[in-house]
Predict the structure.
Amino acid sequence: QLVECGGGLVQPGGSLSLSCAASGFTFSNWAMTWVRQAPGKGVEFVSRINGGGGSTTYADFVKGRFTMSRDNAKNTLYLQMNSLKPEDTAVYYCARTVGTFVSPQGYDYRGPGTQVTVSS
């Protein structure tokens, strides 16, 4: 099970910190992914982290603004989002990656999502 929290309404340029609590599987064995879906758009990749937490990769549109991390002792995934823009408005989901960090094959489980709205 994956459950996200931390979304909300923030002004442009602001920050939010998302978290995702994982249960029911050996969290540290899995690469994890954040994806998002804006209104009327498809799901898009945001970032991915390997099982140990030492390697991350980001979509170009969030590089330098978002930071993904994990705490395997707490079975929790994080996404720190800074310098938020209106176009970051979306439902954000954490997902368990199928495949490996370097060769992902999509994801098999996804949380219910948390809404992030960036607006003045």
